[in-house]
Design goal:
The chain is an all-beta fold and 153 residues long. It contains no helices and 13 strands. Strands 1, 2, 3, 4, 5, 6, 7, 8, 9, 10, 11, 12 and 13 form a 13-stranded antiparallel β-sheet that branches.
Length: 153
């Protein structure tokens, strides 16, 4: 089974040299051309969309801040542009569904968190998108586990 590759489309952005941690934007450009991160500050706290880049310009991760805390969707990418994982934060804690992907674009694992702790089912898949393991946890403690095995006849 082939999986749909999830990629981000890249575009060149103009060079920004502004750095104002109090109220404004910080853009890290160590060589004057390459942007390694872009973040927005309000009253000396991170606010809004934050983007980090690999050295070759590909986006590494995107997340959102409110009053210095991560809040909202976050997405991480492999250095080739394929999605590595996605999830949701509330006040610096993972909350909701989190999905991790293999480099080939197939889902590797999926689970749910409440305040950084796994709650509910956690599903593990192989690189061909077949379910290979399932666990059930409450407050981060695994209570049940099942491994899928292929039966050959």
């Amino acid at each position: 089974m082939s999986c749909k590759l999830v990629k981000i489309i890249y575009r060149k952005e103009p060079k920004i040299t502004k750095y104002d941690k109090k109220n404004g934007m910080s853009v890290v450009q160590p060589d004057g051309h390459l942007k390694l991160s872009k973040r927005r500050f309000i009253n000396d706290k991170l606010n809004g969309k934050a983007i980090s880049y690999y050295e070759d310009g590909y986006i590494q991760r995107i997340f959102y801040n409110t009053n210095g805390k991560i809040n909202g969707d976050f997405i991480m990418y492999y250095d080739n542009g394929n999605m590595e994982c996605k999830g949701y934060y509330i006040d610096d804690k993972l909350n909701g569904e989190e999905i991790w992907y293999y480099l080939n674009g197939c889902m590797g694992k999926k689970y749910y968190t409440i305040d950084n702790m796994i709650n509910g089912f956690r599903f593990y898949y192989d690189k061909d998108n077949k379910l290979i393991r399932k666990t059930y946890s409450i407050n981060g403690v695994c209570l049940w586990e099942e491994h899928k095995t292929e039966h050959k006849t």
